[in-house]
Amino acid sequence: MKNELILYQPDQLSTKLEVRIEDETVWLNQAQIVSLFDGSKANISEHINHIFKTGELEKDSTVRFFRTVQIEGNRKVSRKIAFYSLDVIISVGFRVNSIRGTQFRPDSYRDGQTKS
Predict the structure, then answer these.
(1) Contact 66, 85 (CB under 8 A)
(2) If 0-12 CB within 10 Å is exposed, 13-18 middle and 19+ buried, where does residue 91 land?
(3) Is residue 45 predicted with pLDDT exceeding 90?
(4) Residues 8-40: pLDDT tens digits?
């Protein structure tokens, strides 16, 4: 699949997220996940670390490093940044305790029911 970027902006989110799509999955970096779920960097980091520590997901298959350009002061700096796959994003979404985290979950989970 061709690499592409899309912009994601739900109604409640005042800022846009640039979403990377590569190899048929979505990739977000930690700052984007923080923004998506309206959480803190420390909290999101804790959830991500727990996902890998417990073996729920394998780091090797769900983390990729992409070179990105950041503005630091008045200069552009190119850095390799960790991006997390959709599997990690979904797992974090089920752990985070925020309004956006709740909105992210499917109706079946919000209602406490499973739909067949």
Answers:
(1) no
(2) buried
(3) yes
(4) 555 555 667 788 888 888 999 999 999 888 889
Number of other residues whose CB lies within 10 A of the CB of residue 37: 24
Q: Residue 24 and residue 21: Cα distance in Å, rounded?
A: 7
Please report the pLDDT score of residue 78 as a whole number: 94
Question: Which band of pLDDT confidence, cut at 50, 70 and 90, is reported for residue 113?
Answer: very low
The identity of residue 22, as a single letter, is E
Tokens representing 28 are 């977000």
**Chain mean position to CA 21:** 12
Q: How far apart are the first and last CA of the chain?
A: 32
Torsion angle, alpha carbons of 57, 62, 63, 66, to 10: -170
